[in-house]
Amino acid sequence: MGEIRLGEMGLGEMGQNPYNMLTKLNMPTLKYRRHRGDMIEVFKILHGIYDRDITDGILHLAQNDRTRGHSLKLITQSSRLELRRNSFSVRVVRPWNALLESVVSSPSVKAFESRLDEAWKNQPVQFNYKEELQL
Length: 135
Known about the structure:
The protein is an all-alpha fold. It is 42% helix and 0% strand. It is built from 8 helices and no strands. The protein has helices at residues 18-25, 30-46, 52-55, 82-85, 88-91, 93-97, 101-104, 109-119.
C-alpha cells in the first residue's frame, strides 16, 4: 500500500547509475556522512558538550597562537600503524583544521551543522563514494 516505485518518483530513467540516484534523492554517501558526523563530534568534544573527564586526551589543541586558519587547530598525532591512522583522533585532524573560523566558532551544534553544510556544499564526495574529501 505504501510502496513507491522508482518510476513514480521520476527515477526510473536513471537506470543503475548510483551517482545520479543519490543526487536526485539528495542523499549523501556514507563516506560523506561519516566525515560530517566526525566533524560534529569534534565540535562537541572541543566545546565541552561531552563530559571533559571522558573526552580528556582524545584531541590535542595546538598551543601556539601563530597557527594559520582558525583558533581551534588540532595537533596531528604521529602513528606508525595503519590501524591507528584510521582511528578517530587521527582521521579528524586534517578535515577539522581545514574548516573556516566562522564554522568552528559556531555558538551551537545546530549552527555548526548548518555552517558545515554550507562550507561543504560542493564536496564531490557528497554524491560520489569514489571521491575523497577536498580540503
